[in-house]
């Protein structure tokens, strides 16, 4: 009999898992411990919205082994939060973070979004100061992206709301790098900053192309050789599972060239960059040579730079990361 697969991280995310009863989280963790060899030091993260966790639930999480919580703060400005349809307030963020700490969960992340409707440079820096002033273990900073299905997309299309100029938001991001560094945070990925040794171990698995198993509706997985995803329909998912069938909707086996390109654009998200010499040695000379040419062009454009034995994005490269990654997709 083969040994159980080692689980080093468990992540409850997508949607708002803090809304479900703690007993559901307990049942899922029990199933994980039956199916996998869960590492004693396993990082167990749960995503939550501020204001959705009462003390009893926080205590239950700690008892069950949840040791990291990622809060979707977005902003500390109530008007900004209302503009994107969020129900919580800046006070809720502070109170939830304090509650979690009092229950023994101090390893927390705060998500912030730059470029919200009506946001100014002063407003963004105020949000950043509020977040760093709470001294969470981890801060994630994202620039707003509009989804055509989101109400805000249609509000902007009709002229009822306006976003800050892209150049302004880019400048705020560059100021963020300096501000968070001054506050003791280490940037380890384009959007992620952590106190020393408190990086998200789970998210690092994505960027380092380590195997990740996803369970649930619409979840994605990577087994080291292929990527696959479950159906996104709740009804279709339940129907498949209840019939004892696989809920996997699609699977894509990655060839050598795709593997090389993935390793490049995922690895370049990390501030330590990629060891290109070591990476290219594992792939065909022809494919690696094409990437050599692309990387040299990016370096000439000031988008990548040497970093130790490897390459990483420059500050300008981080701002234009989507354009950089398109070269390898």
What does the model show?
- There is one protein chain.
- With 329 residues, the protein is of the alpha/beta class.
- It folds into 3 domains: 6-199, Alpha-Beta Barrel (TIM Barrel); 211-253, no CATH class; 256-326, Arc Repressor Mutant, subunit A (Orthogonal Bundle).
- The chain contains 14 helices and 12 strands.
- It has helices at 22-35, 55-64, 78-83, 90-102, 121-133, 151-157, 166-182, 201-207, 234-242, 256-267, 276-280, 285-300, 315-319, 321-326; strands spanning 6-12, 37-48, 68-74, 108-114, 138-143, 186-189, 192-194, 220-222, 226-230, 248-253, 304-307, 310-313.
- The strands form 3 sheets. It has a 7-stranded mixed beta sheet with strand order 1-2-3-4-5-7-6.
- The chain is globular, with a radius of gyration of 21 Å.
- The model has no long low-confidence stretch (mean pLDDT 94).
């Amino acid at each position: 009999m083969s040994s159980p697969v080692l689980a080093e991280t468990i992540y409850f995310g997508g949607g708002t898992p803090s809304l479900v009863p703690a007993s559901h989280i307990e049942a899922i963790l029990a199933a994980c411990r039956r199916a996998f060899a869960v590492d004693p030091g396993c990082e167990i993260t749960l995503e939550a919205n501020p204001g959705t966790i009462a003390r009893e639930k926080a205590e239950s999480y700690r008892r069950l082994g949840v040791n990291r919580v990622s809060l979707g703060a977005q902003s500390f400005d109530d008007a900004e939060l209302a503009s994107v349809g969020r129900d919580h307030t800046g006070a809720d963020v502070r109170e939830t973070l304090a509650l979690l700490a009092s229950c023994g969960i101090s390893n927390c992340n705060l998500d912030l979004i730059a470029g919200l409707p009506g946001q100014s440079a002063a407003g963004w820096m105020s949000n950043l100061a509020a977040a760093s002033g709470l001294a969470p273990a981890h801060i994630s900073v994202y620039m707003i992206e509009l989804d055509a299905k989101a109400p805000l997309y249609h509000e902007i299309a009709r002229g009822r709301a306006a976003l800050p100029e892209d150049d302004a938001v880019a400048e705020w991001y560059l100021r963020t790098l300096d501000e968070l560094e001054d506050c003791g945070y280490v940037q380890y990925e384009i959007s992620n900053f952590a106190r020393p040794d408190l990086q998200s171990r789970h998210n690092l698995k994505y960027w380092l192309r380590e195997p990740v198993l996803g369970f649930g509706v619409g979840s994605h997985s990577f087994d080291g050789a292929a990527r696959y995803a479950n159906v996104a329909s709740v009804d279709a998912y339940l129907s498949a599972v209840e019939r004892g069938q696989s809920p996997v909707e699609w699977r894509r086996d990655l060839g050598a060239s795709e593997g090389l390109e993935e390793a490049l654009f995922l690895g370049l998200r990390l501030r330590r960059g990629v060891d290109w010499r070591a990476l290219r040695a594992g792939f065909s000379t022809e494919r690696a040579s094409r990437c050599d040419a692309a990387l040299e062009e990016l370096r000439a454009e000031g988008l990548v730079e040497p970093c130790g034995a490897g390459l990483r994005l420059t500050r300008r490269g981080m701002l234009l990361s989507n354009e950089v990654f398109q070269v390898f997709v």
